[in-house]
Amino acid sequence: MGVVRAASADADRSPKQDRSRATRRRLLEAAVACLAERGWSGSTVAVVAERAGVTRGAAQHHFPTREDLFTAAVEHVAEEWLTTIRRRERPLAPSGPDRTRAVVELLVEVFTGELFRAALHLWVAAADEPGLRPRVAALEGRIGREAHRVAVELLEADESAPGVRETVQGTLDMARGLGLATLLRDDTARRTAVVAQWSRVLQATLRA
Amino acid sequence: MGVVRAASADADRSPKQDRSRATRRRLLEAAVACLAERGWSGSTVAVVAERAGVTRGAAQHHFPTREDLFTAAVEHVAEEWLTTIRRRERPLAPSGPDRTRAVVELLVEVFTGELFRAALHLWVAAADEPGLRPRVAALEGRIGREAHRVAVELLEADESAPGVRETVQGTLDMARGLGLATLLRDDTARRTAVVAQWSRVLQATLRA
């Protein structure tokens, strides 16, 4: 009978867990949108809960503090970011200038979307919030390492060759800088030209 | 007699103008430090006036609104930035790899200091403040064009050659991305390696 009760409790718990996961996801997505649109100062647990259509109590059950919510939100951003990149890995052209350019475009694209905008707000807020700073710094370090690993893989770069590691890192820094440039205005035309030229230089440098 | 009065008023005005200029400068410098340390949400005219040792009334005489004060502050940042760069122009090595590296170091340096940190806070705040956004976007555009012009000049780059303009722009984007990376932690070792490698690539690309 104990077994039967446990099994029944299990069957019972599953939809609850699904609901809980869905609530958590809604909160994280609302938190990202809120950060991207209103910045850190306009982003509180109450504002995010309302936007997600969740009670404040339920939000606090998932994320006891504002710092918990927004660090988890940017972690969620990072996971989405990596999933986006990996999903695109398949249709890339074989090695050559076309592949290099497609990879640079891909890297720049993820640094110019809503996800990066939200992350940027969190980075800047963390610079002034001692309670947030170490968590965001650790998260940023993890994202940087992962982004680097993915970039090396997609570019099929040989990091044992001198300068290759730093060239790939410089490419990610450039992508970050281009993301910053889109914060206030449409920078598409300039960005397209920079990406095309950078891809040529990168191709020549990586295959030298 | 009208002439004498005017002349006397002039002589009288001069030290007053000096005091006024000094007050304005103190306010701008306090505003930059305040933005860099406390972000937009912690930066009000009252906080800046107190920091500068100026009455709130005197601060508002110079800058009627918070937007006026902080846009002027970042304009001041930009002027300092350009002065710093121009002051260094003289002792640069003649054309060659050493000069290229010195220029890249110089560009990256100005994007990793307190001035850039303050500008970054203003950029991010402006993204969410409709009253601030067009002014900061115009200012950012002007700084971008000036930085580009100075970079071309110092690198002695020939912009009539294909790709050179975009290579220089990509270098400035990379410098901006490196600045962002220093926001939360000491990134010096990684940055030094990226700068060294990018200087080699840039030298080869510009002289190709």
TrEMBL record, chains A, B:
DNA-binding region of this protein: 44-63
Biased composition, class Basic and acidic residues, residue ranges: 10-21
Pfam families: TetR_N (PF00440)
Keywords: DNA-binding
Residue span of region Disordered: 1-22
PROSITE patterns: HTH_TETR_2 (PS50977)
Record-linked InterPro entries: Homeodomain-like_sf, HTH-type_TetR-like_transc_reg, HTH_TetR
Domain HTH tetR-type: 21-81
PANTHER family membership: HTH-TYPE TRANSCRIPTIONAL REGULATOR PKSA, HTH-TYPE TRANSCRIPTIONAL REGULATOR RUTR
Protein name from the UniProt record: TetR/AcrR family transcriptional regulator
